[in-house]
Amino acid sequence: MLNRLIMLLIFACLLTGFGSAVALCDGPDDAVKKELKALAGTWKAVSLETDGKPAPDDIVKKVVMTRDESGKTVIRRGEMVVVEAVVKKIDPSRKPKTIDSEQTVGEHKGKTIQGIYEIDGDTLRVCVALPGKERPTVFSAKAGSGNSLAVYKREKN
Questions:
Q1: Residues 126, 16 contacting (CB under 8 angstroms)
Q2: What is the DSSP string of 11-35?
């Protein structure tokens, strides 16, 4: 049960790590490029919650998402690569911003997951639903929702 919870939480974080599928993203090129640039770098998890259950602090401390300028995104828990994904569609013009991503490595490999995200300075929040479920409309992972909510802080170089 804990491993499944951790995988869902980590994947929630990954959705904002735009993969190399930039050509498939919807929206004006400049807006998409701006989002990709804003999301580039290394992000360290601050909190992770799924369906009302927070991940243990010792797990959260180990979760890091990296994204390079080419768009490659990797989520690690310690040294272990847990998830990789590519974005199928983003819309930075919506409120909240939306993202659809297909996991290429991990528990939900080959499935599309819908989410919302926001960047506020060096803080990144993302909320996703399980595959086949409707996109969240608010940043919440209350018990019974099935949603995952993650908060990241950008690591300074």
A1: yes
A2: HHHHTTS--S-GGG--S-HHHHHHH
pLDDT one-digit tens code per residue, 48-95:
999 999 999 999 999 999 876 555 677 899 999 888 887 777 788 899
Per-residue confidence at 139, pLDDT binned at 50, 70, 90? very high
* Number of domains the chain contains: 1
CB count in 10 Å sphere of residue 146: 17
Domain extent, residue 116, equals 2-154
Contact 140, 147 (CB under 8 A): yes
What pTM does this model have?
Answer: 0.81
Return the bridge partners of 112, or none: 102
The DSSP-derived string for 84-136 is EEEEEEEETTSSSEEEEEEEEESTTTT-EEEEEEEEETTEEEEEE--TTSPPP
Whose structure tokens read 């479920």? 133
Q: How far apart are CA 86 and CA 102, in angstroms?
A: 5
- CA-to-CA distance for 98 and 5, rounded, in angstroms? 23
CATH number of the domain bearing residue 7: 2.40.128
